Amino acid sequence: MSANPDELPFGGHLDELRSRLLKSFIAVVVAACLFYPFVDRFLAFLIKPVGKVVFTSPADAFVVRLMLLICGGVVLALPVVVYQLWQFVAAGLKDNEKKYIRFFAPASLILFLVGCVFGYWIIIPVGMKFLLSFATESIVPMITLPNYISFILTLVLAFGLCFQLPLVLMFLAKIGIVTPAFLVQKRKHAIVLILIASAVLTPSPDAISQILMAGPLLVLYELGVVASKFMKS
Predict the structure, then answer these.
(1) In angstroms, what is the C-alpha Rg of the chain?
(2) What is the residue-wise DSSP string for 39-103?
(3) pTM score, two decimals?
(4) Sequence-distant (≥ 6) Cβ neighbours of residue 40 within 8 angstroms
């Protein structure tokens, strides 16, 4: 059991973080081992939107499977990882604030999974259709396995993280760091930051991919503002 944060020195917080990270790492390794038999089927599922891909290096197929194995382990271990993360956050909260972890921990997991599903089923088909529409008779797409999987995973995980935005705003409002009025006042700054984040998080530099991410982020920010009002009421 963690000690009271007021009684923990800086080294104690580092020990707490190290313990949480170690437990999360072990959970990911165990989950990855359980996911191993399903790697090939998951790879075929990811490739389905484009039909076929190629690889140009002998190690590409192995590296991609290893990447998927790690990602699968992380996803399967998410309940443990999220629990450890919020327990570490709770160590820095007051007793009357810790009760909110019971809501925010499972909610963050659900929103992450919803974001991943939204990214894969909604955003990726639109993005792939647009990007591949530039093919012509003389410009034939030859998508390599590592680039394609990296594109898919980056976009899916980015949307999983982006969907945490309303929850983060709610949490900050609940513990008094921000207020709904502050979030409304700083909306223009938030839009600029969202556009920058979209440019950084999208795996492709084209404007369409960035708009596809910036649009939902703006909606999520507004939802976060509305939700923070309920948290303060």
Answers:
(1) 20
(2) HHHHHHHHHTTTS--B-SSTTHHHHHHHHHHHHHHHHHTHHHHHHHHHHHHHTTS-HHHHTTHHH
(3) 0.79
(4) 65
